[in-house]
């Protein structure tokens, strides 16, 4: 992933240095188990741990000749640790190291992404409570529908990210497995106790049944969850972008003192960070299909998944981490305009209360169909002549004869739309 959209915490996890370090941890843990089982001489794991050094450049040099990354790694370790390193990897196959290590990298990444989500939840909770009763326009199809509060809008995002957190916890658990089962997964040349020891040592669970690889449905689940989280990021980002449009302008991204919005137009303040999140979300979601397609490997193993995972492993995790941190910053620093929200509520001059007027008419004895048609005709008149719905309603003889002025005025009130805000918040934000 390019540095522009990367944070060091994640790039360190997906660095070559860290990858080979994990490989070494797996090999040493396996050697420890083999020593306990009297399969290799005592002290091998200690010697390797003490003498082996990760030299990425040297591993690449060897790989350029042998065309095999695990063999190149083992050769490099032997060069430093000495002849006794020949006892490493006894009865193991490359996938034992690669898959177990890849899962560790996913777990490491997932735990940081969980922290990112926790920060978003913290900010959303704070902002939702702050704007709990700030009235704003609820829209469907982009058109004014009925009043809500800005706090409810944020509470909806909060609930979604709570679900995302749970999904990610489950996904981390799903990939927290270890396979040290040898060629085609039969343990023909390695004791199952080695796998058990490695799993415990590295904080993983034993893969109940592997072929020559850990089943890729586990990884597909993990990357699918990242894709869902990316969708949630884009949902919030899109809302911010819409609400910052000049015609709406109910909020805006923070714009620093020396920031410039356009090379041509000095007046511009563009929602560039939210737009950026929309693009990054697309990138994360683009990794989901390849991850799903990795499930169907030939027989007990092929390597069609390998090139995919070398790309999507770092890219998806680094990108979603960056996007979540950026979204937290946007939400924490966004500028909200409650007065503009109220102004927009009144743009349609009471038409947003049409449902309540229709329902009240049904109480007078009219059918729903007739009530709907009557209010719809009033609304058309309001649109055509730029009138207030309450004024048009009050000029109708039937309405005046059936509905009191006091009751009519109560229909055109925001209070009814806020009466259950606390009820909803209690269900969502605890």
Structure characterization notes:
- By secondary structure, this protein is mainly alpha-helical.
- It is 63% helix and 5% strand.
- The chain has 19 helices and six strands.
- The strands form three sheets. The chain has a two-stranded antiparallel sheet.
- The longest helix is centred in the first third of the chain and has 37 residues.
- It is elongated, with a radius of gyration of 30 Å.
- The mean pLDDT is 95.
Primary descriptors:
single chain; 6 strands; 63% helix; 430 residues; 5% strand; mainly alpha; two-stranded antiparallel ribbon; two-stranded parallel sheet
Summarize the structure.
This protein has 19 helices and six strands. The chain is mainly α and 430 residues long. The chain has a two-stranded antiparallel ribbon with strand order 1-2. A two-stranded parallel sheet has the order 3-4.
How far the N terminus sits from the C terminus, by CA atoms, comes to: 37 Å
Shape: elongated
Rg, nearest Å = 30 Å
Structural class: mainly alpha
DSSP helix count?
19
Mean pLDDT: 95
Assign a percent range to the helix content. 55-70%
Strand content: under 5%
Low-confidence stretches are none
Largest sheet: 2 strands, antiparallel
* Assembly classification: single chain
**Beta strands, count:** 6
Order of helices and strands: HHHHHHEEHEHEHEHHHEHHHHHHH
- Biggest sheet strand line-up: 1-2
């Amino acid at each position: 992933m390019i540095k522009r959209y990367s944070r060091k915490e994640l790039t360190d996890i997906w660095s070559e240095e860290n990858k080979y370090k994990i490989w070494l941890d797996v090999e040493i843990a396996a050697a420890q188990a083999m020593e306990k089982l009297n399969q290799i001489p005592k002290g091998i794991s200690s010697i390797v741990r003490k003498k082996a050094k990760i030299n990425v450049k040297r591993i690449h040099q060897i790989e350029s000749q042998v065309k095999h990354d695990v063999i190149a790694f083992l050769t490099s370790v032997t060069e430093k640790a000495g002849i006794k390193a020949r006892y490493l990897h006894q009865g193991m196959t490359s996938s034992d190291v690669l898959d177990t290590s890849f899962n560790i990298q996913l777990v490491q990444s997932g735990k940081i992404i969980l922290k990112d989500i926790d920060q978003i939840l913290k900010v959303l909770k704070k902002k939702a409570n702050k704007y709990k009763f700030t009235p704003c326009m609820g829209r469907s199809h982009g058109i004014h529908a009925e009043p809500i509060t800005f706090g409810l809008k944020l509470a909806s995002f909060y609930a979604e990210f709570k679900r995302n957190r749970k999904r990610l916890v489950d996904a981390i658990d799903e990939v927290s497995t270890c396979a040290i089962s040898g060629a085609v997964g039969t343990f023909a040349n390695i004791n199952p106790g080695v796998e058990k020891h490695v799993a415990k040592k590295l904080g993983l669970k034993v893969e109940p049944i592997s072929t020559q690889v850990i089943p890729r449905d586990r990884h597909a689940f993990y990357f699918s969850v990242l894709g869902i989280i990316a969708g949630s990021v884009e949902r919030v980002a899109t809302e911010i972008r819409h609400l910052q449009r000049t015609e709406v302008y109910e909020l805006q991204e923070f714009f620093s003192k020396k920031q410039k919005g356009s090379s041509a137009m000095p007046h511009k303040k563009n929602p560039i960070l939210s737009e950026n999140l929309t693009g990054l979300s697309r990138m994360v979601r683009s990794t989901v299909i390849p991850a799903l397609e990795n499930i169907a490997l030939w027989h007990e193993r092929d390597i069609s998944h390998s090139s995919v995972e070398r790309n999507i492993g770092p890219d998806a995790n680094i990108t979603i981490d960056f996007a979540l941190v950026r979204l937290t910053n946007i939400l924490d620093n966004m500028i909200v305009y409650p007065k503009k929200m109220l102004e927009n509520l009144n743009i349609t001059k009471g038409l947003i209360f049409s449902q309540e007027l229709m329902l009240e008419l049904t109480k007078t004895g009219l059918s729903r169909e007739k009530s709907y048609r009557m209010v719809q005709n009033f609304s058309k008149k309001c649109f055509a002549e730029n009138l207030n719905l309450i004024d048009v309603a009050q000029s109708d003889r039937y309405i005046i004869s059936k509905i009191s002025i006091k009751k009519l005025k109560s229909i055109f009130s925001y209070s009814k739309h806020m009466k259950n805000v606390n009820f909803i918040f209690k269900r969502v934000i605890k």
